[in-house]
Input
Amino acid sequence: MLRIGLLVNPYAGVGGSVALKGSDGAEIRDEALRRGARLRAVDRAHRAFQVLAEGDAKLEIYCWDGAMGSDALEGLGLDYRICGKAASDPSTAQDTRQAALDLAACELDVLVFAGGDGTARDVLDAVGESVAVLGIPSGVKMHSAVYAVSPEAAGELMLRLASAGLVNVSLREVRDIDEEAFRAGIVKARFYGELLTPEEGHYLQHTKVGGIESEELVAADIAAGIVETMETGRIYLIGSGSTTAAIMEQLGLPNTLLGIDAICDGEVLLSDAAEADLLKLLRSDERPAQIIVTAIGGQGHIFGRGNQQLSAEVIRQVGLDNITVVAGKGKISSLEGRALLVDTNDAELDRALCGYRRVVTGYRDEILYPVGVLP
Output
């Protein structure tokens, strides 16, 4: 019988959809909630454990009470034991660390947590390499390599463990960035340590890395081609990243490197827009729209990592046929054949986005490349 501990940071990722580029700290959390941000970590943990419930696995599940654990298991028909609860509401990083300690004391086979890179750091601080740890991706950034590529992938990996499948365990990196610098458009990633993680290649995301090649000329070529094909009277939602930033530079427009901008006919309609801003624009403006996104180097995500403002609702409003993916061939090659990934927090939409898509890789240069939930 597989002994699983479940830890949920309910406020992980709360700043993503409202363009705060992170969720670390009480002030950021409170501001995100003031702006109407939705909590998503509990739901994503629920999705992961639903896979286990449907798989009829033999389990012993331990968790904390309420939003930090048991809420995610409601309605699944899974038995679980509560071994603690948060000392404060809203919960804090100290609650996360204490929950990890309490759960690890239950002699677990694997500690599963829903959160972001800040949560991974708290878990690392609490348990180190004493227990195998698996992350359900629920944050904004998630540069670390301890996460499954989606909640369902986390569930499948746990199901494989529960059915005595051959699953390797290895040390994988925990990384995080300076959120203050990130909000200023500067990425400062730092290595914090390693967690022992059950791994089965295609279920786990890779560490976020920069491009192998110099991207400047490639991005300029991509931008030149994109600008040439831009249509008059069409709204373009420009995603985050240096490749898409080159498009704004080509147009001579100010750019939010790590945010979402909306433009039309050489004019910036929205700068560093939140999800609500984008939906308001799309619903009030009858002009057609297009999303332009790039892939995260090393991981391959095009939706769901650092661009939660482009939510499932925004994507549906724009239309699945109105998505342009741009990425240099060096970035694509670094995936070593793994598919580009989507994790929109909407399983039905994720499936609809799967398949082969055109990727703009240079000036008037495109390739067909697979997009999937799992590679």
Q: What stands out?
A: The chain has two domains: 2-203, 216-372. The mean pLDDT is 86.
